[in-house]
Design brief:
It is a single chain. The chain is an alpha/beta fold and 549 residues long. The chain has 19 helices and 19 strands. Strands 2-1-3-16-6 form a 5-stranded mixed β-sheet, with helices on one face. A 4-stranded mixed β-sheet has the order 8-13-7-14.
């Protein structure tokens, strides 16, 4: 749905009093005059500064409030974790932590192990100073998923999706924007010659918006990559160490953008009519099938969605034409290496690479790379700080010109929940914390600090937008103008098969009798897009006997 506010961008645990001699290095000492709330944070890509900010503000808000006899004020004790909550399920009830911020976590695993608290009342109550509740800020898809038998046990946390970040400074310098009207038939003539030339309408099809001049179709994207090479630039760079999972994610984002939210959601509900199924021959000729009703018994049909073939073909084309930096094939080339090389490539003398136009990464990467930005600015000057770089998240092109609607695929399953056995007397404090961190003010603070978005509906004020980087503003634009696919469903079928639908399991293909889990591996080993797509249907049709129907 379009939005008018587009930013035009250039059990109670008994805790003993710990003496200073026994406190772990860096650990916060317990203040026995206050009431503690223990919070666990999955501290990876999005970091922990946003939670430290919540801690400071929450403690100040309730500094003079008593939640426990003989005590006044609140102390938020944060512990950071590098593992999803459902990987440590056996320790949740016995552990100290009470409130969890996590990702890559199966909601139904938490429910089935009976470790999560019913927080329905907290989610339905109007928030202080606002006209909406937490529930009101959720999409219908989120409500359908998290509403378990009329009750809520978790809240959406941050948004996590994959895609391409482009260096808008480089695009401006090299004139990498498509022209509204090509001049002649050459490659050069498809792009602007001067800064004030009118740009194409971009993926949204509307002139005068944030995506003007960006490729709307795969054909335009290939032209962009060829033009970058002609101008001695590397079109794209990607993590080689995690190429399997990361390329699957990138291709799935492209597939979602081709198919749209409603069709993609049928993969998880297995309940509805798919309208874009088909087969592809060895020459890439498509044969479209008629509309097909999908049920749990026939869910494998989803693996011949033609939008997925188009996305696979996009990757094959980009890989074979060397639009990706060559180290996409190197297992020793990490996400950090790719981020650093992308950032350094445009700095004269800082890299042996040609300037790189785009980075294949998730929306979390700028927050994750904060140290890299700091080191670059220390060495090369303030202009290379994150706040001063014009890096923007790109709305992805489609296989063919569409209706201008962008679709993003939020794969992280990031959730906030409270463990079930919190002491009864402590629930008022827990409730205040849950509501506090989901106010519009707190949601905006998260975005200002991380330059990313929470997975809820909220506006960011002009004042706060002014504090955000170009990258953060671009994410705000995309999230406010996109349909979002959440890879889950509330049906009994999905609950019984939720682990199968994790993103790492969605692009298997049987080629020459060999199962390939990752598209990047298959294409590297000379499989064609047609072979890979056909092999996907073969694999999942055979594998479907493993589903719990």
């Amino acid at each position: 749905m379009k939005n008018k506010h587009i930013i035009h961008l250039l059990p109670l645990l008994v805790i003993p009093v710990i003496s200073s001699g026994c406190t772990k290095p860096g650990a916060e000492k317990i203040n026995t005059s206050q009431t503690q709330i223990y919070v666990n944070n999955f501290k990876r890509g999005f970091g922990g500064d946003w939670l430290a900010d919540y801690k400071t503000k929450f403690e100040a808000k309730f500094a003079d409030v008593s939640f426990e006899n003989g005590k006044k004020g609140v102390q938020v004790i944060i512990s950071n974790s590098g593992a999803p909550a459902d990987s440590r399920i056996s320790n949740i009830l016995s552990g100290r932590d009470e409130v969890y911020f996590t990702e890559q976590t199966s909601y139904f695993t938490l429910l089935q192990n009976d470790v999560v608290l019913d927080i329905t009342s907290m989610m339905k109550e109007k928030l202080e100073g606002e006209t909406r509740s937490i529930e009101d800020k959720m999409s219908e898809g989120q409500k359908n998923y998290l509403d378990y038998k009329g009750k809520y046990y978790a809240i959406p946390h941050y948004s996590g999706y994959f895609g391409l970040t482009y260096d808008a400074d480089l695009f401006t310098k090299k004139k990498f924007y498509l022209a509204a009207e090509p001049t002649g038939t050459t490659l050069d003539g498809k792009f602007i010659r001067y800064d004030d030339d009118e740009r194409s309408a971009g993926p949204d099809g509307v002139k005068g918006t944030y995506d003007d001049g960006l490729p709307a179709t795969y054909a335009e994207f290939y032209d962009l990559c060829e033009y970058m090479i002609k101008k001695n630039c590397t079109p794209m760079i990607a993590d080689g160490q995690n190429a399997g999972g990361y390329i699957n994610l990138l291709v799935n984002q492209l597939a979602a953008n081709n198919e749209g939210r409603e069709q993609m959601e049928l993969i998880y509900s297995c309940n509805g009519t798919m309208t874009n199924l088909g087969t592809v021959d060895a020459n890439g000729n498509k044969t479209k099938l008629g509309p097909k009703t999908i049920t749990p018994a026939t869910g494998y049909e989803a693996y011949r969605m033609l939008g997925k073939y188009d996305a696979i073909k996009w990757y094959e084309t980009c890989y074979n034409n060397k639009y990706f930096y060559s180290k996409i094939d190197s297992s020793g080339y990490s996400a950090g290496n790719a981020q650093n090389d992308f950032l350094r490539s445009s700095i004269t003398g800082a890299s042996d690479l040609n300037p790189v136009g785009m980075l294949s990464e998730g929306n979390w990467w700028v927050a994750e790379a904060s140290t890299s930005f700091d080191k670059l600015s220390d060495t090369y000057g303030e202009e290379w700080k994150s706040a001063n770089r014009n890096l923007q998240f790109m709305p992805l092109p489609k296989a063919e010109a569409g209706n201008g609607t962008n679709t993003i695929f939020d794969h992280l399953s990031a959730l906030m929940f409270v463990k079930k056995n919190v002491a009864e007397w402590k629930l008022p404090l827990i409730s205040e914390f849950v509501k506090f961190v989901n106010t519009d003010e707190s949601l905006q603070s998260f975005s200002v600090i991380t330059n990313t978005m929470k997975a809820l509906d909220y506006e960011i004020s002009e004042e706060n937008l002014a504090k955000m980087t170009s990258f953060g503003k671009s994410l705000y634009n995309i999230q406010k103008t996109s349909e979002i696919v959440y890879p889950f469903n509330s049906s009994d079928y999905f609950q019984n098969n939720s682990t199968f639908y994790k993103y790492g399991n969605q692009y298997y293909s049987k080629i020459g009798g060999i199962n390939n889990q990752y598209l990047a591996t298959g294409i590297k080993n000379k499989a064609t897009a047609e072979e890979y797509f056909t092999g996907m249907y073969e694999y999942y049709k055979m594998d479907w006997a493993n589903r719990n129907l």
